[in-house]
Write a structure and sequence with these properties.
The protein is mainly beta and 307 residues long. The chain has helices spanning 3-18, 28-31, 172-177, 286-305, and strands spanning 46-54, 64-74, 79-90, 93-107, 113-128, 144-160, 163-170, 185-195, 202-212, 217-227, 231-238, 242-251, 255-264, 275-283. Strands 1-2-3-4-5-6-7-8-9-10-11-12-13-14 form a 14-stranded antiparallel beta barrel.
């Protein structure tokens, strides 16, 4: 087998790791992890967002991910509805997914609530490799293949004014039937607010871990400093050995433009360069968003700031 065959195998292995049926991790502050955790649908009053990840800039045919999301809160703020569309491309593998999540919020008291989410998912995956890149494979059927299938995910979350904890069983077919080609995985998520001395400023920290049934896992940790409603500064780290820096700009408590830069510090940084992420987001319910955003400060204002 010639050198370019080895390169092909390397690319296919990279593609398999990137697209083992796992929804890509985007910056939580901008996409709210709704695509991974259906129990979070509508939690912030609803939004529409479009995110684009461009990985390993400068590497030919490097993978990229596009996420379009919509979610809203209905039924006296108890029913969350959403739609997520993810398109992943790179090397020779393309994957498209469409999910429709639904969440129900169950109040515990005036400050805390539980939520349960279920999503119906459809996945379409295609692998296209031209014969000119493969010279010594006996079975060429793998070169051009495609597959579509349905799946589902279940999620639950606990919401407190200062933190949120959520978990999800993704790809239930794989959990129950060991479906080949689509790996089941477990997603865990935690988010917390750290109030600052200024009445509105805060630091928000969030972490997401995805465990695959094959024993693999990916994670990222992020921290965001939000200055009133205008500027969001962020930093974090991922299990792919990338340092994250991000900047978000709010306008009129409706629009959010977010940018993330992933600086690769791993041993493969010589070959796989840095990555970028860009998000445009629109909050559907401005009044709900403002109340949700500032109500937690009213709770602690007298106890923490006026002593």
């Amino acid at each position: 087998m010639k050198a370019r065959n080895y390169i092909l195998i390397l690319l296919l292995c990279l593609s398999s790791n990137l697209w083992a049926g796992v929804t890509p991790l985007f910056l939580y502050k901008y996409t709210e992890n709704v695509a991974l955790l259906p129990s979070l649908v509508g939690y912030n009053g609803g939004s529409i967002y479009l995110s684009q990840q461009m990985n390993y800039v400068g590497f030919e045919n490097a993978p990229s991910q596009t996420l379009f999301g919509f979610n809203t809160l209905k039924g006296k703020e108890r029913l969350g509805l959403g739609l997520n569309v993810v398109n992943q491309q790179g090397f020779s593998l393309n994957e498209f997914s469409l999910s429709v999540p639904v969440a129900y919020y169950l109040p515990i008291n005036s400050r805390m609530k539980l939520s349960f989410g279920l999503s119906g998912d459809y996945y379409y995956r295609s692998l296209n490799v031209t014969d000119q890149y493969v010279e010594d494979l006996d079975d060429t059927s793998i070169l051009n293949s495609e597959r579509g299938f349905f799946d589902a995910s279940f999620s639950t979350a606990f919401h407190h004014p200062y933190f949120t904890v959520a978990a999800s069983f993704n790809h239930l077919n794989s959990w129950m039937n060991n479906t080949q080609g689509m790996q089941g995985y477990f997603t865990s998520f935690v988010q917390a607010d750290i109030p600052l001395t200024n009445e509105y400023d805060r630091i928000e920290v969030a972490g997401t871990v995805i465990y695959g049934l094959d024993g693999s896992f990916v994670w990222n940790g992020q921290a965001f400093y939000e200055v009133v409603e205008h500027v969001i500064l962020g930093a974090g780290y991922t299990s792919t050995n990338s340092i994250i820096t991000s900047l978000g700009l709010h306008y009129n408590n409706r629009w959010l433009l977010g940018y993330g830069f992933y600086y690769n510090v791993g041993s493969d940084a010589t070959y796989f360069k840095n990555s970028h992420e860009l998000t445009l987001k629109f909050h559907l319910d401005r009044q709900y968003y403002e109340q949700h955003r500032y109500s937690r400060y009213a709770i602690r204002k007298g106890a923490m700031l006026k002593k």
